[in-house]
Amino acid sequence: MPVRELSSGIYELDIDDRKMLATKNMIPGMSVYGERLITDDDTEYRQWDPSRSKLGAMVLKNFDIPLESDSIVLYLGAASGTTVSHVSDILTDGLVYAVEFSPRTMRDLIQLCDQRPNIIPILADANKPQSYAQIVEKADVIFQDVAQPNQAEIAAINSKYFLEEQGHLMLSIKSRSIDTVASPKKIFKEEVRKLESGFDIEFEVLERKELDPFHEDHLGLVAQMFVDDEE
Amino acid sequence: MTGTEFTAWFGKLKLDANGEIEDCDLFDKDPEKLAEIVVELQNNPQSVPLQRADLRDAALECGFVELDEDYDILLRDVCIRAAKSQISQTDTDDSRIIQAVEALDDIDKNVNELSERLFEWYGRYFPELEMTGEGLANFVSAYGSRTNVPEDHAMSEKASQSMGAELLFADEELLRTFANNICSLYDTRRYIENYINTSMGSVAPNLCEVAGASLGARLMSMAGSLEKLAAFPSSTVQVIGANRALFKHLRSRAPSPKHGIIFNNPVIKNAPWWQRGKLARALAAKISLAARTDFYSGELDPTIKEALDKKLESIRQANPNPPEKKPEAKPQKRGGKRKSRGRKKNKKSGGNN
Question: Could you give the ipTM of this predicted complex?
Answer without folding.
Answer: 0.92
